[in-house]
């Protein structure tokens, strides 16, 4: 509820409940812009010089004649993402007529294609091929949408949402495991403490034009989100907070800008407009290119371009999906939805966001307990249009059905990505600072939400009552006496003794500490079962195939390197040696690729050592022979080195031994005495001295 505090023109705008009746209040001018032909015609707003207010309630007294409700437009037949039997939300997938398969069979010939397949097989990289379908073309993108009644409907109604016969008929008579009949009313899987999902909201030119100004459009958007947030907070303990608004100019461009291709006029305007389904696809592509840096877990587009009978459309189970995926039909999916302007557009928005959370439609008349819709109970299927997820809403729909509650809590626990569900207060939100929306905003001590009694928090002022320091409605670590729980109180029990530790309150905070898990990949469970810890669960890839592939009799996962992503890939039990790839992801922490781990549906690569080790273990038929050959080659190399060294040593020891050469004796040339000179004449009679003394040496 928002009040514009002008003493000359006091205006209130919003929704409220009184005596279990939903009431709406809007300025007269705003009401005139969004009223339908079946609404009462108040006095022209120009007759009220100081403005005026219109107050009306949702009545359950009048239901439209089914003959007056038009059938859904045929555009939905072109989309099949949400009705795909392999969708993660449905726990019992149908046979793989529309699933992807992986072929491990050897090539039958030596063509180029078969050689490529052979090399892929040799290297442990399976080739991909689509499964054969009995139909000529299988589309993968079916969206959920809401449908209004024809303009000449006589009774005051909300908007007709598609009948089940036109929405998810492909599932037909599926098993009851796909319609959440066994989880009716269960809140197991929903947060035990307050959480918030941040969203972004865009408004195209047609929506802003409906409200005349950008400020008026912003006001309407924030009022819508506040109403939606209050319902989600009281039902699932999850609030909705806007962190980014993208409100366009009321004048539609002749040609859209490249960064906002969704901002175009409606079809038939002569400017190449987009219908609701195509607008969703273009908006999803924009969201994927924008990336997740904005912190928004969902993006929602407000428009005034209903497509025939459709007034809302959203992708099923795409919570926290910030990237976009394009199918072979050109449709683009992401965490997005579109709501067209109506008198009660907040209910359309709540319905579409419910689909993002994984909710399927409630069952309507003509249903069966085995149909793929949420039944009223285990013995009755028709919900009579009493709840928000009803395909035909003609009554005071301000609550989710018990089956929808079990549906959403179950998918939050086991199927959809919940990485964007965070504790409140982590960042500022764009809001009208409204007490009662379930979000504790600046200036508030607490916020129990709409129509909620609290002994600790005054719901009129969102301030603590005297002596209170916390409110149990805003966190699990607050006691009924409005005081913090002791540090010994367990606020989050252990889900598995080996893989998940219990968390205890801090003694000074209302919130439970972050969940702590054992290391992913740690052995757990009975010996020999191959179970390992993954995000607090003791499981294995085989166990996850068994859980998700009941209808297909899947019991064994394909090799860890088969898909290089986190889609559940299981061995086809028909014996074709194929892998059936489901749209469900392996739980976070599961092994993927070669040495990687699944994180938020993506495979995060491990270290080089882990990658090499995982490849070796996953391709033993290749790695063992290679290892043997490499070992033999290494041994041969070592033997060659050893032999070389030995031969060198042998040649050295067997070489002939030679005595060192004797230095030659120098040749002595005898010295001959000089020729004897004849004696001096005076010595002629002397005796020759050489006879006694030898030759004379010189």
TrEMBL record:
InterPro entries: ADAM_Metalloproteinase, Disintegrin_dom, Disintegrin_dom_sf, MetalloPept_cat_dom_sf, Peptidase_M12B. Residues 432-520 form the Disintegrin domain. GO terms for molecular function: metal ion binding; metalloendopeptidase activity. Residues 195-424 form the Peptidase M12B domain. Gene3D superfamilies: Collagenase (Catalytic Domain) (3.40.390.10), Disintegrin domain (4.10.70.10). Residues 85-104, 140-159, 652-698 are annotated as: Disordered. It holds the Pfam family Disintegrin. SMART domains: DISIN. The active site is at residue 352. The chain crosses the membrane at residues 620-645. One of its GO terms (cellular component) is plasma membrane. GO terms for biological process: membrane protein ectodomain proteolysis. Zn(2+) binds at residues 351, 355, 361. Residues 671-681 have a biased composition (Pro residues). PROSITE patterns: ADAM_MEPRO, DISINTEGRIN_2. This is Disintegrin and metalloproteinase domain-containing protein B.
């Amino acid at each position: 509820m928002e009040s514009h505090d002008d003493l000359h023109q006091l205006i209130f705008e919003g929704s409220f409940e009184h005596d279990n009746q939903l009431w709406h209040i809007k300025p007269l001018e705003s009401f005139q812009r969004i009223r339908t032909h079946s609404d009462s015609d108040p006095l022209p707003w120009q007759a009220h010089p100081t403005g005026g207010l219109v107050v009306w309630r949702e009545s359950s007294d009048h239901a439209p004649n089914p003959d007056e409700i038009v059938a859904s437009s045929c555009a939905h037949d072109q989309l099949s993402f949400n009705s795909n039997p392999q969708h993660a939300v449905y726990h019992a997938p149908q046979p793989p007529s529309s699933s992807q398969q992986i072929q491990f069979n050897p090539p039958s010939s030596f063509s180029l294609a078969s050689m490529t397949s052979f090399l892929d097989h040799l290297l442990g990289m399976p080739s991909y091929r689509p499964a054969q379908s009995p139909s000529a073309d299988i589309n993968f993108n079916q969206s959920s949408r809401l449908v209004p009644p024809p303009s000449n409907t006589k009774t005051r109604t909300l908007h007709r949402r598609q009948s089940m016969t036109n929405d998810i008929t492909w599932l037909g008579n599926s098993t009851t495991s796909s319609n959440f009949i066994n989880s009716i009313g269960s809140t197991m899987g929903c947060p035990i403490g307050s959480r918030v999902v941040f969203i972004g909201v865009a408004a195209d030119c047609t929506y802003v034009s409906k409200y005349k100004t950008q400020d008026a459009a912003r006001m309407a958007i924030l009022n819508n989100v506040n109403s939606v947030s209050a319902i989600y907070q009281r039902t699932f303990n999850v609030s909705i907070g806007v962190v980014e608004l993208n409100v366009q100019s009321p004048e539609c461009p002749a040609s859209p800008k490249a960064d906002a291709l969704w901002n175009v006029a409606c079809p038939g305007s002569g400017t190449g407009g987009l219908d609701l389904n195509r607008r969703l696809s273009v908006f999803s592509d924009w969201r994927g290119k924008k990336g997740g840096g904005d912190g928004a877990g969902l993006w929602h587009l407000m428009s005034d371009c209903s497509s025939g009978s459709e007034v809302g459309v959203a992708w099923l189970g795409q919570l926290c999906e910030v990237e976009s995926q394009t199918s072979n039909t050109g449709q683009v999916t992401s965490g997005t939805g579109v709501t067209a302007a109506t008198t009660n557009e907040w209910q359309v928005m709540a319905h579409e966001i419910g689909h993002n959370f994984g909710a399927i439609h409630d069952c309507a008349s003509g249903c069966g307990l085995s149909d793929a819709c949420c039944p009223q109970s285990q013995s009755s299927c028709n919900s009579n249009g009493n709840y928000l997820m009803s395909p035909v809403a003609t009554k005071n729909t301000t609550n989710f059905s018990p089956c929808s509650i079990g549906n959403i809590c179950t998918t939050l626990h086991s199927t959809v990505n919940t990485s964007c569900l965070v504790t409140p207060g982590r960042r500022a939100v764009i809001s009208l600072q409204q007490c009662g929306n379930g979000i504790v905003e600046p200036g508030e001590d607490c916020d129990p939400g709409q129509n909620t009694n609290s002994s600790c928090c005054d719901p009129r002022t969102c301030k603590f009552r005297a002596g209170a320091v916390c409110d149990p409605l805003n966190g699990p670590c607050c006691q009924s006496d409005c005081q913090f729980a002791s540090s010994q109180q367990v606020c989050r029990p252990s889900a598995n003794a080996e893989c998940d530790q219990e968390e205890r309150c801090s003694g000074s905070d209302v919130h439970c500490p972050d969940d702590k898990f054992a290391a992913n990949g740690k052995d757990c469970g009975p010996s020999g079962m191959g179970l390992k810890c993954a995000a607090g669960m003791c499981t294995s890839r085989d166990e996850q195939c068994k859980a998700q592939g009941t209808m297909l009799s899947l019991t064994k996962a394909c090799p860890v390197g088969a898909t290089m992503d986190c889609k559940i890939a299981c061995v086809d039990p028909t014996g074709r040696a194929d892998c059936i790839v489901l749209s469900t992801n392996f739980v976070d922490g599961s092994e993927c690729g070669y040495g990687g781990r699944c994180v938020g549906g993506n495979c995060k690569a491990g270290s080089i050592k882990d990658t090499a080790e995982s490849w070796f273990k996953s391709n033993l038929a290749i790695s063992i022979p290679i290892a043997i050959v490499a070992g033999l080659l290494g041994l041969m190399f070592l033997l060659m080195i050893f032999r070389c060294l030995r031969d060198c040593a042998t040649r050295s020891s067997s070489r002939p031994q030679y005595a060192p050469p004797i230095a030659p004796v120098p040749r002595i040339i005898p010295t001959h005495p000089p020729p004897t000179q004849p004696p001096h004449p005076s010595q002629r009679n002397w005796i020759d001295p050489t006879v006694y003394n030898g030759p004379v040496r010189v």
